[in-house]
């Protein structure tokens, strides 16, 4: 009997242990689910903050508010460009304003979709007055042949064109250091025998040579008058006359 009672108690102990483990598992499942929800919430927090961001894009500063949509700068709109248009001919493009940009039509009604008329040509094919390029002061403007330099050009805000609005281009050296052609010619005529014209242009060696040779006995003076008059002799820094 004692053995039977002991066997019964051991089985009861094992059964109670299984029931306890099942209860622990059931209670731990909601806790793990809650932990997962916390993890997912913390993971999605940056996404929610990014979605709620109200930062204004930098292009908005170039876009006049409540103006005509057709007169907005190209940076304020997105257009469906038609590259099959005929070069040099008028073309019509469907455009849409970018976010945070407000414009109106001819009747002062706010609109988002509109059309613009422009000439079918790429930006690098525009006239020189339609874009602005960087200048270089490291090249000679009076060299033969004339030197070129790599410039970066940007289309003006009110001009519409196809392709990239910022493009590279080879340009002739055309910078100036502030020297006047009229002043150089006047010095060559009046004080050329003393090298004043060469001194003015920054050519000190030639100026000293003319000074101590009395203008090459007048021959050098006459030659410089002719060369400065036709623009062949220019400033020593390689710039253009004003």
Automatic annotation (TrEMBL):
Topology of the protein relative to the lipid bilayer: Multi-pass membrane protein
Q: Where is the TM2 domain?
A: 178-225
Question: Which InterPro entries would you find in this protein's record?
Answer: TM2, TM2D1-3-like
Query: From which residue to which does the signal peptide run?
Result: 1-17
**Main localization category:** membrane
Q: Which UniProt keywords apply?
A: Glycoprotein, Membrane, Signal, Transmembrane, Transmembrane helix
Provide the Gene Ontology terms for cellular component. membrane
The membrane spanning regions, by residue number, are 211-233
Location in the cell reads:
Membrane
Domain of life (superkingdom): Eukaryota
* Family classification: Belongs to the TM2 family.
This protein's name: TM2 domain-containing protein 3
